[in-house]
Each structure stands twice: as C-alpha cells, then as structure tokens.
Amino acid sequence: MDKLLYGGHVDEFIKNKVYYKIFDGSFKQSSHIYSKKNKLGDSRVLESVENNRLTVVKYYDAENIVILQQVHGNEVIDADSDIETDPEADGAVTTKKNLVLTVQTADCVPILLSSEDAKVIGAAHCGWRGAKAGITNNLVKLMHEKGAKNIKAIICPSIQQYSYEVDQEFYDNFIKQRIENSKFFSSSLRTKHYMFDLPAYVELQLQEAGIKDITRMLEDTYTNPEKYPSYRRSCHTGELYNRTILSTIVIKG
C-alpha cells in the first residue's frame, strides 16, 4: 500500500545508505536559484547559483552534483558517464556514491527513486508534457538496465488537484491518449474547465512500471507560498518567479 505523508519527511531513503532532502523555502541557507539558464550576463546571480549548488553538496558531504537543464521532455541521462555541465534532460540515473541527483520544480512533480539494495538511484522532473511522453517509464527502464531491483519511489511536493485548473483542450488531449485518464480530472467551477491530478497521474505511471513501494507527499506548492515557489501562483498574483524547489537524492553508504 502506498504511504501518504503530509510533509514531515525524513532524510533517510534506504537505511544508512541512501538519503534525500527537499530544499524548500524552510531552508534558509539558499536563495533557491540553481539554474544558470538565461543568467550568463549577471555575475551576481551566477555567483549565487554556484553558492547554492555548493551548499547542497556540502549538506550531504558529497563530491558533486547533477543539475539538469530541464525542458519538459522525456530524456533521462546516465550520470555515471562523463556528462557536460547542466545537460539538457529531465531525468538522471547513477550508481555513483556521493553524486547528488537533483530535480528543480515550481509546481511540476519531482520523483526520487532508489533500488532496495541502494546501488542505483534516479530522479526526474515530471511536468504534464514529460509525464505524458513517458519520462517515468524511461527512468525506471534505465535503472533496470543498471541492475536496479525492487525500486522504491517518493513523489515529492507539487501542485495538487484542487489548485490545478485546466481547459477543455488540455482535457481532450489526455482523453485521446487513453480514455481511462478521465479519472484524473474532476469538474471545475468554470464551464469547460477541469481540475487535473498530475501527482496521481505520475503515480499510476510508476505503478505501471512495476513499482509497488510509493510514498506520495500531499503538500500543495500553489497554496504554500512561504515554503514553495509556484509558477502557476506567480501567473495569478504577479509575484516574482525565479526560485525552485530542489528535490535531491544521493548514495552514501
């Protein structure tokens, strides 16, 4: 049975071996800007980005960190290979100890995975486009290719159904993919609009990939401005949108 948590997560994923942390607004040692995209001309911001990344590495007493240039796609990289700085992808897998895998989000669904023996970990950014294109399956497939068995997963904080209104075209797009997708939508107060349950959609994909041990966090990024940045909230309120949650996982033991 899936385990549901309202925040209060612990940092231990696999006892004494794999650890995770969600660097959200409650973590005051970071400005929560981790991407260098569109910031090459601002030396102060770039310095802040480097400091934020180093803070995460030091937090784990790790050696290195993988920051992806996320594009809402379904590509997953093998971080065991020599990779370019900030590779363009939305997921990563590694067997290396002390290499921190990360996912940047501000409403989308971050997922963190580990094999039961703690030898393979993975992380992915699941926006609706990437999720619909099969990024969860690609992540699990690569983990299996690297020897992972009995994979456990955590679905980290994201926008919840009661905050995620979509239009008729969005709804129709998902129904065309599979009629059963209708169960992820409920009626909205507005005509020809629906409330979409993206975390549940991602959870089903994990289940269909063979993962049985899934922990799903139910905190809503949209309605918790003190703790979580939210792209959708920024569109509605006009607040500055330049921060992300950083969901992280690392093999230590």
UniProtKB/TrEMBL annotation:
Keyword Thylakoid tagged: no
InterPro entries: Cu_polyphenol_OxRdtase, Cu_polyphenol_OxRdtase_sf, Cytotoxic_necrot_fac-like_cat
One annotated GO molecular function: copper ion binding
Domain of life: Bacteria
Keywords: Hydrolase, Metal-binding, Transferase, Zinc
Database matches in Gene3D superfamilies: CNF1/YfiH-like putative cysteine hydrolases (3.60.140.10)
Catalytic activity: inosine + phosphate = alpha-D-ribose 1-phosphate + hypoxanthine; adenosine + phosphate = alpha-D-ribose 1-phosphate + adenine; S-methyl-5'-thioadenosine + phosphate = 5-(methylsulfanyl)-alpha-D-ribose 1-phosphate + adenine; adenosine + H2O + H(+) = inosine + NH4(+)
Protein family membership: Belongs to the purine nucleoside phosphorylase YfiH/LACC1 family.
NCBIfam families linked: peptidoglycan editing factor PgeF (TIGR00726)
Protein's recorded name: Purine nucleoside phosphorylase
Species in which this protein is naturally found: Candidatus Tisiphia endosymbiont of Sergentomyia squamirostris
Encoding gene (name): pgeF
